[in-house]
Design goal:
Strand content: 15-25%
Strand order of the largest sheet: 9-8-10-11-12-13-14
Number of strands: 14
Number of domains: 2
Structural class: alpha/beta
Mean pLDDT: 92
Distance between the termini: 64 Å
Shape: elongated
CATH architecture of the largest domain: 3-Layer(aba) Sandwich
Order of helices and strands: HHEHEHEHEHEEEHEHEHEHHEHEHEHHE
Low-confidence stretches: 1-26
Length: 326
């Protein structure tokens, strides 16, 4: 085949490709705004994962990606003005996470929003259901109601003699009641008595831990949310001083001293937000993109804490562990 005929054939094949496939092969540029309710240091893990996810889709700084970063530094009343600043910079999309999600997504904005949060979007009014996002916003929710029941099963496998479990959970965390209902049903199935202690703030956390000590549970389960993680050292130090094993969802709890954690691998969920950014940049609307839940999970076991508590982790658990802290 002569050279001119070959070039004509190749160009014809490329032209015949669907628009979506051609766009996927040659990513354009993206001007992205980012709003965090945290400070720059606390938001770094999320931002790094977002950049990694975008790089995997062909967007890299400074050539094809520009990210405008804004941080509320824990002052939530600043968030609306930060959103306004980003729109004045003519960003094509705004990415947000955690506690900033609700004010960004439901506040005044003219560009699409992609978010990551740990709560239940329908309970927050962010979606009719996961398949039908609202407010021109979509993204990733870390909440899987059934996961707390799986953590109770894990505790039962590690320490089958445990029949009294205390749970601390933030009642302000949207979807917590769904988690509680599922957890109590699992406790009944396993023959474990479950006591709940609402902990919406530090003062009530102090009171809950005092009451909890009086009830003498055999283990403590901490439902995952930002408040629990912010107070992780306090909670785990309290539990260890009373020789209570702690089970929770996010790996940072095991890294701090919880006996084990089982839940989403957060960096993968953070990185997944890049998928939504890419799709929207290429023409999709948030309403067309169902909210996703995590698909990658990790089991982290802290053998140091197990040794301190005099607990032997069964080999059936250790062989499934993604990470063992020694």
């Amino acid at each position: 085949m002569r050279r001119r005929e070959f070039i004509t054939l190749v160009c014809g094949v490329v032209t015949a490709l669907p628009n979506s496939l051609r766009a996927a092969q040659v990513p354009g540029s993206a001007h992205v705004g980012f709003v965090s309710g945290l400070d720059q240091s606390a938001a770094a893990d999320f931002l790094n994962a977002l950049r990694d996810g975008l790089a995997a889709r062909g967007y890299t700084e400074p050539g094809t990606l520009k990210i405008e970063e804004r941080f509320a530094d824990y002052k939530s009343d600043r968030i609306p003005s930060l959103v306004q600043e980003l729109e004045q910079q003519r960003v094509e999309i705004i990415v947000t996470h955690a506690a900033a999600t609700l004010p960004v997504a439901t506040g005044q904005h003219h560009v699409p929003v992609v978010y990551e949060l740990s709560a239940d979007p329908p309970s927050l009014g962010l979606a009719a259901d996961l398949a039908h996002p609202l407010h021109n916003a979509t993204g990733v929710s870390l909440m899987l109601v059934e996961m707390n029941g799986k953590r109770l099963e894990l505790l039962h496998e590690i320490a089958p003699q445990v029949t009294r479990v205390a749970v601390i959970a933030n009642p302000l965390h949207s979807g917590m009641q769904l988690e509680r209902d599922d957890f109590e049903a699992k406790g009944k199935q396993l023959g474990i008595n479950v006591s709940f202690f609402p902990t919406p703030n530090r003062a009530e956390l102090d009171q809950a831990l005092t009451r909890l000590a009086d009830e003498s549970p055999q283990a403590l389960v901490a439902f995952s949310d930002a408040f629990i993680v912010d107070n992780k050292n306090y909670i785990i130090n309290f539990a260890m001083s009373r020789r209570l094993p702690v089970i929770s969802g996010w790996a940072v709890m095991a890294e701090t001293g919880a006996l084990c954690t089982y839940g989403p691998r957060l960096v993968d969920s953070y990185r997944r937000t890049a998928y939504f950014v890419d799709r929207i940049i290429k023409g999709s609307t948030p309403a067309e993109l169902p909210i996703e839940r995590p698909s990658v999970f990790e089991l982290v076991v802290n053998l140091n804490s197990a040794k301190t508590l005099g607990i032997t982790i069964p080999s059936s658990v250790l062989v499934r562990a993604d990470r063992v802290i020694e």
